[in-house]
Amino acid sequence: MAVGIVPTSENSAKYNGRITWFVVLSSMVAATGGIIFGYDIGISGGVISMEPFLKKFFPDVYNKMKQVSKISNYCIFDSQLLTSFTSSLYIAGLIASFFASPITRTFGRRPSILIGGIAFLIGSALGGAATNIYMLLLGRVLLGVGVGFANQAVPLYLSEMAPPKYRGSFNIAFQLCVGIGVLSASLLNYGVEKIKGGWGWRISLAMAAAPASFLTVGALFLPETANSLIQHGKDHQKAKQILQRVRGTLDVQTELDDLIKASDKSKTVKHPFKQIIKRKYRPQLVMSIAIPFFQQVTGINVISFYAPILFQTIGLGASASLLSAVVTGVVGTSATFLALLIVDKVGRRAMFSSGGITMFISQMLIGGIMAAKLGDQGALSKGYGLLVLILICIYVAGFSLSWGPLGWLVPSEIFPLEIRSAAQSITVAVGLIFTFIIAQTFLVMLCHLKSGIFFFFGGWVAIMTAFVYLLLPETRNLPIENMEKIWRDHWFWNRFICDEQDYEKGET
Question: Transmembrane segments in this chain: where (predicted)?
Answer without folding.
Answer: 19-39, 81-101, 113-135, 141-158, 170-191, 203-222, 285-309, 321-343, 350-372, 384-410, 422-446, 452-472
